[in-house]
Amino acid sequence: MKTKILMVDDEPEIINAYRRLFFSFKNVWEINFATSGAEAIEFLKNNEVDVVVSDMRMPGMNGDELLRIIQSDFPGTLRIILSGYQDEISIIRSLSSAHQFLIKPCEPDKLKVTIENAYALRDLIENKQFIEFANGLDELPVLPQIYIKLEREFSKEDISLRRVADIIEEDPVISAKILQVVNSGFFGIPRRIADLMEALNYLGTNLVKAIILYVETFSVKNYPEAESVEIRKIGKHSMKTAEIGRVLCKLKKLDKKSSDNIIISCILHDIGRLLMIRKKNYLNDVLEKMASDNISMIDAENKLYGFTHTSAGAYLLGIWGLPKEIIEAVGFHHNPSAINCEADCVTGVVHFANAFANYSKSIFNFKEFDLDLEYTQKFISEDEILKLWKNVLYSLDNK
């Protein structure tokens, strides 16, 4: 099924540029164009649309006003806004009308990637109950402003570590967290690192971005106390999973790119639960269902809502524009057999890291690990899993 996209801009030359840009996608995308907010609304009334990409500054009805109407009347539609003004981006980030914000002039590939990633796992989340729940929320978590600034810096040909450090130092909380993580034993560094530049040099760009996402995502500000407690638990579990993921990468001798993607995926693997928490009585209802039916959290969520936190997490990361490999790992970290996942693929390693993090007993009992047997039995024996688990415990105890 083709993804249906509506692009809205009042400038004819921009519309013509879009036509040329997306012509090669005609087999997978059905693209229509509107030159005003009113024309876009009229089109939406008579046609099914998956994604609306709108300019911010338009006469009559601006982009924010248009997307607010779409949010209210067409909640199943993904909303992306474009602006040529950085100050506007800062302002509209505090609003709830758009899922993604891009700066004009936007590189064609950036817009393509944003849309492609937002729908990379369409089959996983093509559930009207979930789509309407997520898009109907007053506000979805958005990428932190500092993350966007770093992405812009990292995209330059002449990346400056000094400029990166200056950007991070604008936020003392994140600066402190980066130093805390690099010195926590997580990486096994034999001496203390007190300088942010040195920490950045050691961690690399991907892990720095992952730490920023962690700090901002699991912030408990503006949450009620009960939800704050749960968010802290999820954050703690996510870091434990990431620590185990790092050990697994080392044991399996994986390359840096795969290792970075695995650690980032481990940190974000339960991010969907932050959306699920917004459902009324979610925590109590899920715990009661797990106890009464003796089933897992995933099965309880499916029975109660028809979708799960893994779908929610994959959907959110797609909107954020994260790489497909990370989106897949978050979406299928409980069931890697659902995709074409090889032995040491990102999703598979995150699956083991999560299972090991959830296992609290000191004696190995294979049946009590939350493992996808269809996947594990294809690549690894029970004895090999025991050996891997023991090696992880040894590495954690002797870091």
Q: Short description, anyone?
A:
With 399 residues, the chain is an alpha/beta fold. It has two domains: 117 residues, Rossmann fold, CATH 3.40.50; 253 residues, Hypothetical protein af1432 (Orthogonal Bundle), CATH 1.10.3210. It is 59% helix and 7% strand.
Q: Any overview of this molecule?
A:
The chain folds into 2 domains: 3-119, 3-Layer(aba) Sandwich (Rossmann fold), CATH 3.40.50.2300; 145-397, Hypothetical protein af1432 (Orthogonal Bundle). 59% of the residues lie in helices and 7% in strands. It contains 22 helices and 5 strands. It has helices spanning 12-22, 37-46, 63-73, 86-92, 108-118, 122-125, 128-136, 145-154, 161-169, 172-182, 196-203, 205-217, 225-252, 256-268, 272-276, 282-293, 297-305, 309-320, 324-331, 346-358, 373-379, 382-397, and strands spanning 3-8, 29-34, 51-55, 78-83, 100-103. It has a 5-stranded parallel β-sheet, with helices on both faces. It starts with a strand and ends with a helix. The mean pLDDT is 83.
Low-confidence parts lasting 5 or more residues at pLDDT below 50? none
Q: What is the H/E order?
A: EHEHEHEHEHHHHHHHHHHHHHHHHHH
Can you give the mean pLDDT? 83
Structural class: alpha/beta
Number of helices: 22
Total individual domains = 2
Describe the oligomeric state of these chains in a short phrase. single chain
CATH class type of the largest domain: Mainly Alpha
Radius of gyration, Cα only, in angstroms?
22 Å
* Approximate strand percentage: 5-15%
The strand count comes to 5
Helix content: 55-70%
